[in-house]
Amino acid sequence: MRGTSSTSFAEVLKLAEGAFAADPGSLETVADELFSMADAIDSSNQLVRTLSDPGRPAAIKEASVRSLFGGRVSPQALEALLEIVRRRWSEQEDILDALELLGVSALLDHAQSEGVLEQVEQQLFEVSQLIDASGDLTAALDGSREDPSRRAALLRSLLEGRAHRIAVALAARSVGRRTDTKPARRVEEFARFAADRRRRSFAAVSSAIPLSQTQQARLGAVLAGIYGREVQMNLQVDPEVVGGLRIQVGDDLYDATVLARLSRARQRLVA
């Protein structure tokens, strides 16, 4: 996603992950519901246009969503879709991508709660490589392009008992949607999303002196507020951090050290 869609997705993902953290036990069910809603919307071009139309009032789109899915899915899944249709998207297909990726995120949150997020990520990359390396498997998946459910069943039957159930579910979903993207690339997309999710779940924290338990708890609460979920902290003492903290979460760097502030002040003076 690019432009407006990228911003909208970041907003709905943060809200959804906060909701997922409140009830982690139901995430596999929520993921199935999000995938099912994406498929139902995808089956109707008119519905896709209606829900993605930037000129249509949000209240009308919300009413359509409630009429179609209210009482049929969990409040978590319904609210996730409502948040999507409340926002603007660069392309109408982006609402389907957003809904699907929220389902992926729900499964990855569940994987993290089970302590298998890294395993799931690695297995998805391995499945992508497996498809690339097997001409027969690639041909079989490409041959079922017009029947995504058959592709999903084929990949699921191949992987069950050989990979973690969450990796199996994600791999099957990746090929279970009608798309022009090659199956191996779809699996790889999910793997990369998982890799990004894992990076955003760990914080490398450097401080000049050890942080107290109170300070650690306060910092953990701040990071959880930023990312919408608990962030595991890897604490390191670095004498070169002259006051303050240096925090790295994935690609995000929060550098509040004295040296960083002096450097910025020096740059302003030079300018």
Question: What features would you describe in this structure?
Answer:
Helix content is 66%, strand content 8%. Strands 2-1-3-4 form a four-stranded mixed beta sheet, with no helix packed on it. It is α+β, with helices and mostly antiparallel strands and 271 residues long. The chain folds into three domains: 1-113; 115-199; 200-270, no CATH class.
Helical content band: 55-70%
Overall pLDDT: 88
Give me the number of helical elements. 13
List segments where confidence is low: pLDDT < 50 over at least 5 consecutive residues. Answer: none
SS-based class: alpha+beta
Given the C-alpha coordinates, what overall shape results?
A: globular
What is the first-to-last residue Cα distance? 36 Å
Provide key terms for this protein.
271 residues, 4-stranded mixed β-sheet, alpha+beta, globular, 13 helices, 3 domains
Question: SSE layout and pairings?
Answer:
Layout: H1 4-22, H2 27-42, H3 45-52, H4 58-69, H5 75-85, H6 94-113, H7 117-133, H8 135-143, H9 148-159, H10 165-175, H11 183-199, E1 202-207, H12 213-227, E2 232-237, E3 245-249, E4 252-255, H13 258-270
Parallel strand pairs: 1-2
Antiparallel strand pairs: 1-3, 3-4
Short overview:
With 271 residues, the chain is α+β, with helices and mostly antiparallel strands. 66% of the residues lie in helices and 8% in strands. β1 (202-207), α12 (213-227) and β2 form a beta-alpha-beta unit.
